[in-house]
Amino acid sequence: MHQNPYQPLLKINLAHLYLRQGRLIEGRILIEEVLSMDPQNPQALSVLGDLFLKQHSPQNALVCYRQAFSRNPKPYLNLKAARALKEMRRFGEALNELEKVLVVKPESLPFLKEKAFILNRMKKYDQAYLKLGGEAEETRETMGGVVFAFILAIFFIYFIMIMLFKSLSQPIIIMMTIPFGLLGSLLAFRLHGVPLSFMGIIGMIGLMGVAVNDSVVMIDFINSVFKEHPAKDRLHQMANIARGAKQRLRPVILTTVTTVAGLLPTVYGIGGDAKVIVPVVMALAYGLLLASLLTLFMIPSLYMINLDIQKLLGLDRKKEA
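RESULT FIELD:
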């Protein structure tokens, strides 16, 4: 069965379109399919270099452009190599790449624009400038909306817990797990080499509502222990907190393990590869894992600190009165 000779070209063009739309994962899948059949395909190597450049990996992009140029020495590959060298701050080499073409085509507008930009980066000509708009501007505006959603989610979570616990301090204790959950997500992105994308940020926003669940359960149970066994001194308070944390240990661990176990197959593509939602699921899985582990140690300590602060300010006497 012979392969359609136009099929690789169609995949390369579709991958290039995906890159322009910011769908990097889908574009890479198509390029890897082409390269698996023809590892030295110059068009596929060129698009793969574009993908690396979008992922802020100019070293890998330059390697791809060099390999593509060795198979198909076209001027546009000199331009792409110059852009990769520019990102690596190797301005002299970037200018040399451009001059190779400008010697033959001195009026080539794309090469002249790139040269002006590089010279501006080298601070030789202040008149050269670059104005970004279009997709870059739309992305910036979208991120502003995401920040607003992030702040709004925090306020909603706080006010809902105020109504649940009828306390101003206990919701703050619970929300202390959110920064650690976000830290877990960022560490996962870093260790897996996944860039912080728009989908990843959406996953981190969703994580804020999930990460507090174990803390809510533990605080509520410790409150019930205090109602059943009123504590009149600090030693009894510590005993009640320890009793509540001990009895919630297994439920917190089990709920976290089962949730993370259900998310990890999607992260690692087990049973199917859904790379578009991987950043969302990765943020939820690893953020929840770190937040829940810290809940077991941090929440009981913060609960005791809260009681000490209330005693210091005399708020515990007002409650008894």
